[in-house]
Amino acid sequence: MKLAHTMIRVKDLDESLTFYTGFLGLVEYRRGTIGEECTLVFLGDEAKSYFIELTYNHDGRDYELGTQFGHLALTVENLDAVIADVEARGWWYRENKGRYIFVKDPNGYDIEILQA
Q: What CATH number should be reported for the domain whose range is 1-59?
């Protein structure tokens, strides 16, 4: 068995894409719609080893973060450069002694970024 993807419902697709592609550096590999109901965008790393599915429902519904979901975790080669980028953007983050940080995506989901 191999993990395929994690689906995240997003409130603003453009803002979420800016975060996941512009900041985290993921690549958009596929996009589609399910009728007029929703747009699905699949993002992944360059190796295509794992995907995140951003789901945007067109009806404008709002979401509450559930208590069962923890966070997504990504590794980077240079955590100090990521911290500098986060600080330059004026974003809140929580750091653990230079080993990893937590930031929030535009929907309030926790993203853990670890030093590789």
A: 3.10.180.10
Residue 41: closest CA among 80, 82, 6? 6
- Give the tens place of pLDDT for each residue, 45-80: 999 989 999 999 999 888 887 766 778 989 899 999
Q: Which residues of 18-37 are buried (b: 16+ CB within 10 A; e: fewer)?
A: ebbeebbebeeeeeeeeeee
Q: Name the CATH code of domain 70-116 (choices 3.20.20.80, 3.40.1080.10, 3.50.50.60, 3.10.180.10).
A: 3.10.180.10
pTM for the structure as a whole: 0.80
Q: Show which residues are catalytic.
A: 112
